Structure formats: structure tokens, C-alpha cells
From TrEMBL:
Stored PROSITE patterns: HTH_ARAC_FAMILY_1 (PS00041), HTH_ARAC_FAMILY_2 (PS01124)
Keywords: DNA-binding, Transcription, Transcription regulation
Organism: Dokdonella immobilis
Matching InterPro entries: AraC_XylS_family_regulators, Homeodomain-like_sf, HTH_AraC, HTH_AraC-typ_CS
Protein name: AraC-type DNA-binding protein
Amino acid sequence: MPVLTHSELTRLSRAREALGLDGPLPRIAELAEIAQMSRFHFMRRFQLVSGESPNQLRIRQRLLRARELLAGGHASVTEVCFQLGYSSLGSFSSLYRRRMGESPQAARRRLWSAGSLTPCMERDLHPGCMSLLEAAWARTDEHFWRSIRAPVLQHSLTQPTREEPA
């Protein structure tokens, strides 16, 4: 396996950042120029470092972002499709199905119902352990106050009150 220098790795990282999620996919010649390599050398080195071509990496990043947006439940499949820069709902859906193993509609239903989330509830999410603590505290607190309330009331009824001298 060829050794990468620090300089090569830095330049390849810059080219990877230029891929981004938004806008059209930069041409390989542009990415190679950013990495200061020939197109063929860039493609070999990029695939060596990332394990996939620049196009495959971008597709994977966009589909992962699509899954996040679908799980949120705020956007329809069509809105997600166009928001991520796909021009055809059909090609987006078939690509999503091929790569992710289910249709975007099925993924949206499954991911959204997995936590029984509704869009208005999503803002109020907090870790489950906090819910358990709150429930335990409420039970303990209620039990505590019931247990001390009865003896305090009994004590105040049986003890005469002292009057202060005037």
C-alpha cells in the first residue's frame, strides 16, 4: 500500500470538503486541481484514503442526510428530494431504495414511528434516563410528603399551643 504524506492527506481533505452536500458535484478536474494532483492520481489516492470515489462519497452523504430529514418528519419525501439537489423524485426514490434497502416513504414511516414522535413533540425530547428520574422523584416526593404530613398534623392537634406573654 502506497504511503501518503501529510501534505497529500491535507490536500485530499481539502478536495473532500469541496464536495459538500449543496450544489452540483464539482468535476474531477476541479477536485484534482484543489488537491494539486493529476486527475488519475487524484482518483487513485482519493479512493485509497476514503474507500470510495468522490461521487460515491457524495451520494452516501446525501442519502444519510435524507434519512435524517425523513426521520424528523417535518418534510415530505418530495421536499427532501429537492432540498438535497435531486431533480427527479423517481430517481431519488430508486437510488434511496437501492442504497438504503427501503423506499424513502417506508423509511419515513418507520423512523418517525420508531420513537412515536410527532413534529411538535420532537422539540421536547430529552434523554430517557431523565424521564425515569423525574418519575421516581415524583413518586418519592409524593410518598415523602404523605408520610410526614400525617404525624405533623397529629402532633399539632394533640399539643397545646403556647401563648406568648404580652
